[in-house]
Amino acid sequence: MACATQAPSPMNSQKIHLLDRRAFLAGTASAAVASALLRPSSALAAAAPRSSSILTHENAREGSRDWQLTRVRIDPAAKGQNPREVVRSSVIEGYCSRQSVAAGEKLDIMVSTNPPSPFTFEIFRNGYYGGRGARLLTTLGPIKGRVQPDPVFSEQRLVECQWEPSATITIPSDWPSGVYLGRLTTLPESADHPYWQSYVVFIVRDDRPADILFQCSDNTWQSYNRWPGTYSLYDDGVTPGMTSKLDISASFDRPYGKYRQIYDNPQSVGSGEWLCWEFPLAYWLEQHGYDVSYCSNADLLTPDRGLKTKCFLSVGHDEYWDVRQYESVKRMIESGVSALFLCGNAVSGVTPLTPGTSGEPNRVMTRVGPFGGWSMASAGVAVDRDGKPRPAPGPDEGLLMGARNISPVNGGGDWIVVKPDHWMFEGTGMRKGDLVRGLVGWEYHGNPADLPGLEVVAEGTAWKGGTVAQHWTATYHPGPKNNFVFNSATIWWAQAMSSPPGHMLPWSHWNRPHGPDERVQRITRNLLQRALGRTS
User: Fold this and answer.
1) Could you report the per-residue pLDDT of 67-108, keeping only the tens digit for each?
2) Is there a single domain that holds both residue 78 and residue 219?
3) Would 458 disulfide with which of 422, 423, 474, 478, CB 3.0-4.6 Å?
């Protein structure tokens, strides 16, 4: 069950249809507050560029100096509660009606403010933008805020809000594909009162032929989202801490709470895990002019989008997939698309996507078990909520990626080259045994699949829990049509690509990556150039 939906009220719901970036509502708060909080969007270009130069043109525009969260307030802990377990920012929080949206489509933004407060809604696109990391596209507001009702929790631990829209936007045709952050900012009664902020996140997708398809790992963002308390796929209401039992569901119809899985990151409240694990790679790709299109996990339930690209990227912590995603990427590889799994713990848990109460498709995900390779390599299999084992409901992820998930897996280590003569290491100067300190973590792949032409290009020891040795492997194998598949074997690959504004380096299980590394950047460049059919 979910919380009751109230009848729409014009005082509480402001529908704003954006036709282009020149048409927006400016804030009308006091001059002192507005001047501090609002920035006008840049002027529109005269005409949209050809698809091959869309992001080059976009990133030549002026970026915003002020797009990050400045003032974040996490709710106080209850008596006896660990403050680290508190993830909610009820003073202002929100969510979007869809994971991704295309030009011309409408997107509802649901916001709750407690206590009731007017707020502004600024929309930024993340990218390079001369090193600033984001560009302001438009500002909406002031919008009247209200306290939206808390949801009712279902038997499957499902938390599904049915909040009224606070704003409805229509995506303009000149908003390029990318990850967009909506910054919510309360407007205080006077300059003597504090303002508070949080994000909502959505993806703008397109259907054009593109060189690279960047799949955001938003299924995994949602699986670890504990909003409003302990209601992720890892909370069964009985087991202390985190559990991997089955038949637990999570909904996209709720805000993203503070990220707190392996480290505290309050500066990302409302943005899922995008700023933690994926943004550094997107920032680097756009800095160097690659032709990239972005999509959500739910956008690959069929292979259609991917078949219009040359290279597919799975990035960061891409753990939870619908089996239809597996079949889609398999079809893409069979059709000649190269795949770079710049990730760890990927394609691990099977989570079918189903409609939410609103009828919107792909808004609820349910853990039903592991992919087959994970089950083969683990000490046991996942159990349902009654503790009964269940066989793997998905195929062997190793046959897709080249290596499998190993379990239990939480730790880290150094990324060590074992095949330096491979073309991917050209120009790096790396020799056998050379390493990138701390790049492997906090979860990784191992147990290579028996695939024709598969090569282990890097391997070594990761220290599970910080002290127990565990073997990991990075692999390469050729595809059927002069394409290939690369598995980097670590969640932290993107940490070595760049250090953009708004990003915080992690530390977990006594291991940490060190940030940008020119050797990892060169390996990535070599892989992309080959995938795109370029020689330089």
Assistant:
1) 999 999 999 988 878 777 889 999 999 999 999 999 999 999
2) no
3) 474
